[in-house]
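Figure 2 data, in text form.
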Amino acid sequence: MNQYLSPFCEIFGDIIKRYGFNVTACDNDTIIMAGRGYQLVFVIWREAVEISYCVIKNDTEVVTYNVRDFIITYMTDADRTISEITFTADQNEVYKRNIYSLNHFANALKNHFPAMLEGRMDWLELFEKSEWYRKPRVENRKA
């Protein structure tokens, strides 16, 4: 069971509803928001939350762009301003940090990258010119 799935759906609830995403957890670390022809993949590690934008190539493959650091570059103080979050005593610091990160990324995506959420590639040219650009990888599709 992915411990982040329920809070993820709450944090990204407005985005999920607005853009019609299907959300699935494919393992304990990975949550996918799938649109028509594209996916945003969140891998929630002990060290960080990774985000990839994946273009669905066919039934078994996706073209994957690691966009985490690119998104962080555009993150503002306003994106990092979130409502008070209540945690239970059994939720450790890693869990808390990851929940905060998911909130920050949800805000940054809404505020700076609506094209990603809509499945458009308008952001790609800017990404390709950034220091964070790496050639996309073709990977097996997880969902």
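Caption note: The chain has a mean pLDDT of 95.
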